[in-house]
């Protein structure tokens, strides 16, 4: 296989989680860098630009959201998978707004994380259709989009029965 080894940065303050993720990812041939907090993660990301970041939300010193906010401003930002024990839906919504590619709640099955990584890398490796779409006339794109839009179903209210069924 002549593909370049993908780099993954794991940023989490739990050494057991980091160790388990690192072992599995290295076993699959990835180059893995690890950081125990957001500050270390950002330094490592600058020194060894990753192809993907696995980022914990809640960490001492600098948590996942400040890192995510900083990365979201970068045009070359790698995809990010956020892992967290936090149950809040507002946190998930905010993470998604900032561009997180997946949001996985702890504890999670390693297979769940691996499926997410595989999907993200498969999407990166596929040629994008945006180049062909960009060449399409905007009027044609509108027409094509209109054909694909499903029509709304009409809803009717039930009529009151006029006869007494009792």
Estimate percent helicity.
Answer: 40-55%
N-to-C SSE string, H for helix and E for strand: EHEHEHEHEHHH
Q: Determine and state the CATH class.
A: Alpha Beta
CATH superfamily: Response regulator
- Which strand order do you get reading across the main beta sheet? 2-1-3-4-5
What is the number of beta strands?
Answer: 5
Strand content: 5-15%
Tell me, briefly, the overall form.
Answer: globular
**Main sheet record:** 5 strands, parallel
Q: Structural class per helix/strand content?
A: alpha/beta
User: How many helices in DSSP terms?
Assistant: 7
Estimated radius of gyration: 23 Å
Mean pLDDT: 82
What is the second-level CATH architecture? 3-Layer(aba) Sandwich
Q: How far apart are the first and last residues' alpha carbons, in Å?
A: 77 Å
As residue ranges, the low-confidence spans are 130-163
CATH topology: Rossmann fold
Number of domains: 1
